[in-house]
Amino acid sequence: MRSVPTVTNERELVGLSTSDDASVIKLNEKQALIQSLDFFTPVVEDPYLFGQIAAANALSDIYAMGGEPLSAMNIVGFPPELDTEILEKILQGGADKVKEAGAILAGGHTIEDEETKYGLSASGLVAPADMVSNAGAEPGDKLVLTKPLGIGIAVTAINGGLSPGGENSPAIQEMLTLNKDAAEVMQKIGVNAATDVTGFGLLGHLWELVSASGVQAVVNFSTIPLLSEVIEWAEMGLVPGGAYSNQEYINEHIDFTAGFEEAKQNVLFDPQTSGGLLISVTADKADKLEIALQKKGVTSAIIGRIESGEAAIKVKE
Hints:
By secondary structure, the protein is of the alpha+beta class. Helices cover 35% and strands 26% of the residues. It has a seven-stranded mixed β-sheet with strand order 8-11-7-12-9-13-10, with helices on both faces. A six-stranded mixed β-sheet has the order 1-2-3-6-4-5, covered by helices on one side.
């Protein structure tokens, strides 16, 4: 992407330069437009659940920027030989999740494809002064994570028959959950930076945050919320290929303490689908943020801190 010519404008508040979750364009002094796009192949067998998960994942970019979803459009790739009832269930799932977010589903586009793909082009609104990007982390900040890690590993276990799937699965429940409540709390408390944790895993998205902010991060693994059994599954080798790609991409920037277990490393690189928010907040607000999140029923934990220095990540037990 670095070789692609870019066109900048004074109204562009967030663009390609910081690898953020979405673009932000200033409309006027009180409003800015957030735009993002995300789609992927099915992560679960149930088409209705897949539609919901894909929509929640796409809408998460709007929440990560501190915005409120406004509208969305479907993006669909669908094999012509499949029963159209499958497509109808996917679209119904997406529509229901967009409605839950309080946004408008305004249409979309479908093409024939060799495999099923679904997602959204999503837009939202935020006051320019209230926008949250991944580039504002400051030394002394605390790092707060919402939602437990391990979704990619858990889905691999489900697909391998080692864990039950369906709507009652903890991993699927997390993927179905919008980051709406977390974003509302984040805006109320006031934070310095945020991103959502999705395909690049916790460390991949944290790397983007520290790079954009020009700081270092220290992560304490023992404080990170995890889905049950993910360490055991990682030890069994139930790790999605994306985790290894993520590790290869940023491993030179990560300093693990001596003897840090490979299974735990895999969890930190595990690609998440519709994961939580990673928030950088001043130390004096961190406890207030956590308490407010818990009151909303949002799983959260302080998992580390921001320090001064050249962009890098240190991981401790």
